[in-house]
Give the backbone structure.
Amino acid sequence: MEVSLSLYQSISLDQIQNSCSFPSSIHKVFRTKPLFSGYCSRFNRRKWGNPFDKIKCSSIEQGLQPRRPKPKPSRNTTPELKEAEETQVKRPSVGLCSQIEKLALCNRYREALELFEILELEGGFDVGLSTYDALVSACIGLGSVRAVRRVFNYMASNGFEPDQYMSNRVLLMHVKCGMMIDARNIFDEMPEKNLISWNTIIAGLVDIGDYLEAFRLFLHMWEEFSDCGSRTFATMIRASAGLELISVGRQLHSCAVKIGVDDDIFVSCALIDMYSKCGSIEDAQWVFDDMPEKTTVGWNSIIAGYALHGYSEEALCMFYEMRDSGVKMDHFTFSMIIRICSRLASVEYAKQAHAGLIRYGFGSDIVANTALVDFYSKWGRIEDAKHVFDRMPCKNTISWNAVIAGYGNHGRGAEAVELFEQMLRQKMRPNHVTFLAVLSACSYSRLFECGWEIFQSMSRDHKIKPRAMHYACMIELLGQEGLLDEAFALIRAAPFNPTANMWAALLTASRINGNLELGKFAAEKLYGMEPEKLCNYVVLMNIYNQSGRLKEAAAVLQTLRRKGLRMLPVCSWIVVNKQSHVFLSGDKSHVQKDEIYRKVDSLVNQISKHGYVPSEKTLLPDVDEQEQRVLLYHSEKLAVAFGLLNTKNGSPLQIVQSHRICNDCHNAIKMIALVTRREIVVRDASRFHHFKHGSCSCGDYW
């Protein structure tokens, strides 16, 4: 059953401020419509027996037992017989248990569980509460579901009767290891529940994203314990952030103020995160400014909030304020800043963050280094990305995905495939993102046979079902080979409804291969799925334009105007001497405009001698002579000319373009790279284009 989220919004803020209680209507909803229908609530009953007696761990139901299970003594035996059995069964184990406790205390959890195996094999040992507590710590430290089942089953079979503290520890063990079904059963059967019990189960539900059930339990808890602590409020504020219900978050904020826990660091950080995720960065800033002590977590939360809403420059300013305040920065701080630099296209700031990462002792952090690999890859410095990757002492799947995708985006598909094979040799498990990266690399570098083999190996060798994005890569690969019939057949053979990405790949393939009819068919499919997406109309206009059917292109333009869609101005920018210079097509606002235009004219004259012919076809039939001349001064050409004027001979140029590079500029820059003997890298909305010696890494397919 589901309860509308609007029910939470019906809670009056005045009610919370006046009485700090929740309205009875909400409680009525929860009682009549249980949100967690799979469980039987036992909130109002007290049971004073052994809580483990009535709990059946899912591992027991699945037939998982210790290697030599010890039969549980019958409850029907006489006291004399029971005493005799205990005399025979219970043996002192002070030395063994002491060793287990010491190992757990020193975080040597695996060794502690290896010693516990002796208890399982031999049986009959008298194990005390402190040893069970140590074993619980070992299970939590390793996050091992199997270890949890072993320890829990041993407790149950040995007749261990936990007190309140140990019951909470067993509950925490299941929650921390993700065994929420078993955890909920344990919670429901607990004879007594204190604040720790409620906070543990509620936090577990929030961690797995079951926010509605967390709120249901919170309301039950509120009836029993009206004096909730700061931890409870921090957890429930996280739940309201997960639901993106700012009204509920505000009510919790108001209640926290009334109770006097709003100054708690965890509550404040949770509020900053909640307001940020719910779209109110102003409220998040207000909470941050009101914090009596601004900690590392608080700074990270507000920086992440600004970055989340696209305020990259403001986030960077907050980072510098954090640095100047003397607060210690951690690896999360640097990871965020590196991602912000990626958005700002700021190599210099990223280098500073990289240096700070090493200076503060996080040079081996896997998260921050992966962010660096991703940044350097995205901004044309693939060699720097590979250098960071090679120096990482520990790599995970995300790290491998970042470097494989980097090489693929730079048109170095063969090296991307080699990295993928190296990843497999090192026994790393690829995921669907890995295959997307390597298939995209094959697509960008036209490695048809290699790509097809990897695509087939997904389900055959790795048991990963290809998704729509993987099919889109294969459609693009088939299109590069001119196999449009096979590409269309692959779409029809997909085990799911074709997505917009798949039709877009077919539309691009139709444009490159000049197949007007198939392009029209793919475009019609896209119009139905993405009627407001501009680029689909533009691609169809280009198909009509290449086919000489300018009237049909004009009709597409009329459709765009009728829908209110308009093409944004194309801009390109280049960084020279640590300063960004932005150009629009036909732009004459730059201080060096006269030199730039003369340089463009000179370059066109030079490359014309090598076979370059400016494109005579216009996008539309009603472009006048002045607009036609602007085509000779597209933003890419202006940026290249400026770079050649203001950099040393032989140094590479790197340009960023907001749209896909047009065919005329692509041909022109190939020739410019040839005559100037420069390497020119253009990052457009599609991929990287490495122009060198008169050719491009994309193979003229983009």
The first strand starts at residue 91 and ends at 92. Residues 1-77, 84-89, 618-628 have pLDDT under 50 and may be disordered. Residues 351 and 594 are 34 Å apart (CA to CA). Strands lie at 91-92, 125-126, 571-576, 579-584, 653-657, 680-683, 688-692, 695-696.
